[in-house]
Design brief:
Elements: H1 5-9, E1 22-24, H2 35-45, H3 59-69, E2 76-79, H4 81-92, E3 99-104, H5 108-114, E4 120-125, H6 134-144, E5 148-152, H7 164-173, E6 178-182, H8 194-197, E7 203-208, E8 221-224, H9 227-234, H10 244-254, H11 257-284, E9 289-291, E10 298-303, H12 306-317, E11 319-324, E12 331-335, H13 339-356
Parallel strand pairs: 1-11, 3-4, 3-5, 5-6, 6-7
Antiparallel strand pairs: 2-8, 7-8, 9-10, 10-12, 11-12
Helix pairs in contact: 2-10, 3-10, 4-5, 6-7, 11-13, 12-13
Length: about 350
């Protein structure tokens, strides 16, 4: 069989199973839907026609999502999670041989998907600590001259964020190249460029319902751009990729803006409280642990012996975090959970680090 060599040589994506008491490894919302929204979802699902295909253009979901993001429905198109858009845009948007630029560290799926596409990919390091200035990013863009530049803001996995004006400077440096800004975690930051993206020709913003909105199970993501770009990229989207049940769930939940704002604010508050505690641990054990502030719902942590610490968290405390020991900059990404889960993490790390010293 003439299978893809890239496919047969790549490691499988294997997140930890959902068997741990405290799950801080996949950046999901720690809060399930409240009872009133669950009841409304069940009611609306009961009105579905199960023998019919989903609405191919997800008209009602687009209208509700457009209202949520403050734009016109012609400027937004849903997909099966933002991950579907990442795959399609990298593989199908550009001409064969186009140059795609990614930075490292950033969301590893960008590089993974680009390996399947008939494009030239350039991966440039942000530096030894994983963080970069706007000037540093612009310098890389001007040197590489990409046809497409994709980056996450806030960055996954570092939690670093650029404000709106900084992102506009980055986009301007790209000239007429296509710029895809992955704002999966921007709900926790509040520096979205959606209002700018819909007025430009070459910018696409990706958003997801899997993080702050708390609908990871539904797999709903959005591409947001000017109407012409939305019409173009709709050509590469499978017409039935968003199930009718997902469309119904999204419609119900996205209408409750007050609930979503409150739950996001709670995560942000818990993030700040937890960061102070983790930073205090890093200050106490500077040789064992390093951490920087985050504007997302996770922390970028560098342990001297991450495998030992992550194994101890799982085996002794039933706490799952995400370890990247073979990344160019080895690190551990820790999701912000409930206040109780965050405290359990801090107490566990306190004991583990004391034993290792």
């Amino acid at each position: 069989m003439k299978l893809s060599k890239y496919l047969t040589s790549m490691p499988a994506y294997s997140p930890a199973p959902n068997t741990y008491k405290v799950k801080l490894n996949t950046n999901e919302s720690p809060y399930d839907l409240p009872e009133n929204l669950r009841k409304e979802v069940v009611r609306k699902l009961g009105e579905m026609q199960f023998n019919r295909y989903p609405n191919p253009r997800a008209v009602e979901l687009r209208e509700v999502a457009a209202d949520f993001f403050g734009i016109d429905s012609s400027m937004i198109m849903p997909g099966n999670g933002s991950g579907e858009w990442l795959k399609m845009l990298i593989s199908d948007l550009m001409e064969h041989g186009s140059k795609l630029l990614f930075l490292d560290p950033d969301f590893f799926i960008y590089r993974r998907n680009a390996g399947f596409a008939a494009v030239e990919k350039s991966i440039v390091s942000k530096g030894e600590d994983g963080f970069i200035t706007v000037e540093g990013m612009i310098e890389i863009i001007q040197a590489e001259k990409p046809d497409l530049f994709m980056f996450s803001n806030p960055c996954n996995p570092t939690g670093q964020g650029f404000n709106k004006e900084e992102v506009k400077r980055i986009i301007a440096a790209c000239g007429d190249a296509v710029v895809i800004v992955d704002e999966a975690y921007n709900d926790f930051y509040g520096e979205s460029i959606i209002d700018y993206a819909v007025t430009t020709e070459n910018v696409i913003v990706l958003r997801t319902c899997s993080k702050a909105i708390g609908l990871a199970c539904a797999r709903i993501g959005f591409a947001i751009a000017n109407p012409r770009m939305i019409d173009l990229i709709n050509h590469i989207r499978s017409p039935y990729s968003v199930s009718q049940s997902a469309q119904v769930i999204g419609q119900v939940v996205l209408k409750d803006k007050e609930y979503l704002r409150s739950i996001t604010a709670r995560v942000v508050e818990d993030r700040e409280i937890t960061y102070k505690k983790l930073a205090a641990l890093a200050e106490k054990y500077p040789e064992e642990m390093k951490i920087k502030p985050s504007v997302s719902n996770f922390f970028f942590v560098r342990f001297k012996d991450s495998k030992k610490i992550c194994d101890a968290l799982k085996d002794q405390y039933s706490i799952a975090v995400r370890d990247f020991p073979t990344a160019p900059i080895p690190h551990t990404r820790i999701t912000v959970g409930t206040s109780e889960e965050n405290q359990a993490l801090v107490e566990a790390l306190t004991e583990i680090l004391a034993e290792q010293k």
